[in-house]
Amino acid sequence: MDGSFQAWLDELRNRVSLEEVVSEYVPLKQKGRRYWGCCPFHNEKTPSFSVDTEAQMYYCFGCHKGGTVINFVMDMERMPFMDAVRLLAERAHMEVPVSGRGERRDGVSRDERDRMYDANRQAARYFHTLLWTDEGAEALNYLYGRGLNDKDIRRFGLGASPKGWDGLYRHLTEQGFEPELLEKVGLIVRRDGRAFDMFRGRAIFPIIDARGRVLGFGGRAMGDAQPKYLNTAETPIFNKRNGLYALNMAAKERSVGHLVLVEGYMDTVSLRKHGVQGVVATLGTALTQEQAKLMKRYAPEIWISYDGDPPGQKAALRALDILDAEGLPAKVIDYPAGMDPDDFVKANGLQGFENLTRYDSTTYRMLRARDGLNLDIQDDMTQYALKCCRILKNVKNPVELENHLRRLSNETGYDREILLRQIGVSAPAQAETPRRLRRPDAPQENSEDKAEQALIALLARGRIPTDMVALSDFADPTRAELARRLLAGEDYQGWLETLEDEQARTRALAALNYRPLPAEREEAARMAEDCLRTIRENRADSRAEEITQSIGAATHEQKIAMYQQIMALNEERID
Predict the structure, then answer these.
(1) For the chain, how long is the longest CA-to-CA vector?
(2) Dist CA 276 CA 353 (whole Å)
(3) Alpha helices of 146-204 — where are they, by DSSP H?
(4) Which end of the chain is more exposed for a tag (fewer CB within 10 A), N or C?
């Protein structure tokens, strides 16, 4: 991020009051320099959500969400960074710099981009109106044949494109839209000097983003025409790798707690028609990393709801890999007898959908490992066990691993220890050497973390001099970077706003909001000294632990030297 844009962001934060923005979503009560209210990001009865008026930062002591006013808008409206910046800039009557972070360098001005959204909106209205005319009768009958009624059609804004070559083109140019803009937004194409509608004789599904803007369209061919589905080509406002169908609806369903990912428009419409919430679809592509990142902003878990046939099952496995790489937990709905979501929900309704088994990612991968194998044959059983062991190599949680191992052992008859060896995991051996004695009041396991957090909070509040603390006092990389910025007097709010690692961001926010802190500088200095002492003692303990763990493989002379090191470390921490 260049310095001029960072300076502009600083000005934006100064002009927009965080407490005023938050109070539009959350009732707040002031207590000292903080405002308090019930957190909008998780259910609670006792307020743990706070707005710090001095730092202009919010933080929830319950769910640990926090940040600046830009982060708050991103979280509440589920917007990407630059969309939140633009929204706040409009509020503050500030013009966003063209060279700002995240601005697309495609030569499209803000006014032209807005004009493109307007053209798409007018096209969507045209398609929807045409559906109810004689020219749209075939598309309307197709939608009726798929089980939709007029209410469903209006809810999703479905439409029909004219069968002629230039009906939409003539309609929009009559409204004043330039042919060049219509081509750039993907509504028309040019061939041999003539302009033609992109969509002709199709049922139309508008693709709408979380802010209600029409990005593009999906068109379903009538009869045997090809391609069966046609999407808007990539434009300055639309890229099918970055979007999801029905995201505008999912964005309003904050309490669902998951997204249901399907493969097509009709699966989405049908599931939602029957009462399933949180349903979104990819746009004619396999799931992309960009779409996974987008979903992560809207829900903590994804339910993959692909067709139950072999191609759908393979696609589900690929989707699991992408979601795993993004750190997004997922479950897979395995539809019976090769059914797809549309057929299943029509036959079984909402209750049937809710009763379907949802497999966690590891269980589903193991289920698919059976495909093509006859487990009554020993060679196939062996292949199944080997496939499952490769899958279980990636399970880090020991409790989950144990559960899967027990099931695999029961299924295959292989002993648990044999399976563990195949996975490459062995049971921890008992230490053969005596462990050093520790003082009864030795710091607890997380005391060093708390000490680092307290030092960060004291620095951020200006309660202690900067020369009292060094970067080497921070073992955690995130807190070390935060300390570096605080010690150097550099911006840390902008860094927090764009920090993509959620766990790192949570650690930084927990440190900045550590409490209680003493009000007086003298007490703050004593607290800092205690923290630094805790850090030194914990590091001495850790070093002694490392030495202890390596004693078993040492020679006699090495053991003597190691015991002397441990004694020196214990004496050092006591002093």
Answers:
(1) 96
(2) 8
(3) 150-156, 167-174, 179-184
(4) C
Question: Cβ contacts of residue 176 below 8 Å, gap of 6+?
Answer: none
Q: Parallel, antiparallel, or unpaired for β 279-281 and 259-262?
A: parallel
Q: Give the model confidence (pLDDT) of 29-44 as tens digits.
A: 998 888 999 999 888 8
How much is the pTM? 0.72
Give CA angle at 195 (192, 197), nearest 5°. 130
Dist CA 122 CA 116 (whole Å): 10
Which residue type does 234 have?
Answer: E
Q: Which residue has the tokens 């057929």?
A: 343
192 — phi, psi (to 5°)? 55, 40
Q: DSSP per residue over 162-177, as a string?
A: -SSSSHHHHHHHHTT-
pLDDT digits (tens, 9 = 90+) for 315-342: 999 999 999 999 899 999 989 878 999 9
Is residue 397 classed as helix, strand or coil in its secondary structure? coil
Place of tokens 């999407």: 231
Peptide linkage before 27 cis (omega within 30 of 0): no
Query: Any idea which fold 105-238 has?
Result: DNA primase DNAg catalytic core, N-terminal domain (3.90.980)
Distance CA 483, CA 470 (A): 8
Which pLDDT belongs to residue 443? 34
Q: Which two tokens stand for residue 571?
A: 């004496």
Dist CA 8 CA 490 (whole Å): 15
The domain over range 3-91 is classified in CATH as 3.90.580.10: yes
Q: ∠ at Cα 49 (46, 55), nearest 5°?
A: 150
82 by Cβ neighbours in 10 Å (0-12 / 13-18 / 19+) ranks as middle
Residue at token pair 């959908």: 353
**CB-based contacts of 452: which residues, under 8 Å, 6+ apart?**
473, 474, 475, 476, 479, 511, 531, 535
Phi, psi of 494 (to 5 degrees): -65, -35
Express each pLDDT in 156-178 by its tens digit: 999 999 999 999 999 999 999 99
Torsions phi, psi of 330, nearest 5? -145, 155
Radius of gyration of the chain (CA): 30
List all residues 6 or more positions away from 533 whose beta carbon is below 8 Å from its beta carbon.
Answer: none
Say how many C-beta atoms besides its own lie within 10 A of residue 34's C-beta: 18
* pLDDT, position 570: 61
Please identify every stretch of the chain with a pLDDT value under 70, giving residue numbers as ranges.
1-3, 98-107, 426-446, 542-547, 552, 554, 556, 559-560, 562-575
| Strands 49-52 and 34-37, sheet pairing | antiparallel
Name the CA dihedral angle for 391, 396, 398, 402, rounded to a multiple of 10 degrees.
-10
